[in-house]
Amino acid sequence: MTRPEDVMESYLAEVAGRLIGPARARRDILAELAAGIADAADAHAAAGMDPVQAAHAAVAEFGGPDQVAGGFRAELAAAQARRTALTVLTSGPLIGALWVGAALAAGIDARPIPPWHWAGLPAGARPAVHLAMIALAIAIAGTLFTLATTGRLARWLPARPLATAAIAVGGTAPIDITLVTLFAAQMAGAPGRLAVLPAAAATASLGRLAFTARTARDRLIARGGGAPARQ
């Protein structure tokens, strides 16, 4: 026997399957939606409608699952982008500090201006270091702009939060690839010697590269309207 709760839960499950974004934001949306449907069903039941029919009438008032999920797309995109930008912002100084510590331990060039490099850095690797510095500037700009467009300045700034968040994350990829490659080259030149700081820095950079790949995948899913990113 169908219960009013079954009707509402089935509808909410269909909507949930179409929501793409951070788990917390999705939970808040579903809780708000559930409360609204319950109130509407109670109003129909108070008017003399059968409880099950009242539940069906309530979900019909809210529209189809695709339509409802689409109405929250911008909100979820902003939440997803802000979370991504905050991850980049908080991880950047930590990973940077690890690499600086690794460079100091290995002995860096005496010049007090960037780009610093390790002793014995191959000449061919220097253009990659310069490109990594440019990527760093792009990542910082993308991060700050994403935070601005998903915060208090949102009403005054043109907002494409997922795009700018993707730029922020994408800007970190050349940095991590360059640093990990340099680390691998140094390890190849000194087999059997694995310093703790460089190893920790390389591990952190590899973790951020994995985050970059997952963010790119989630962005493609969001654009295609596929399954939500479970985070």
TrEMBL record:
<feature type="transmembrane region" description="Helical">
    <location>
        <begin position="162"/>
        <end position="188"/>
    </location>
</feature>
<feature type="transmembrane region" description="Helical">
    <location>
        <begin position="86"/>
        <end position="108"/>
    </location>
</feature>
<keyword id="KW-1133">Transmembrane helix</keyword>
<feature type="transmembrane region" description="Helical">
    <location>
        <begin position="194"/>
        <end position="211"/>
    </location>
</feature>
<feature type="transmembrane region" description="Helical">
    <location>
        <begin position="128"/>
        <end position="150"/>
    </location>
</feature>
<dbReference type="InterPro" id="IPR047928">
    <property type="entry name" value="Perm_prefix_1"/>
</dbReference>
<keyword id="KW-0812">Transmembrane</keyword>
<dbReference type="Pfam" id="PF22564">
    <property type="entry name" value="HAAS"/>
</dbReference>
<protein>
    <recommendedName>
        <fullName>DUF1700 domain-containing protein</fullName>
    </recommendedName>
</protein>
<keyword id="KW-0472">Membrane</keyword>
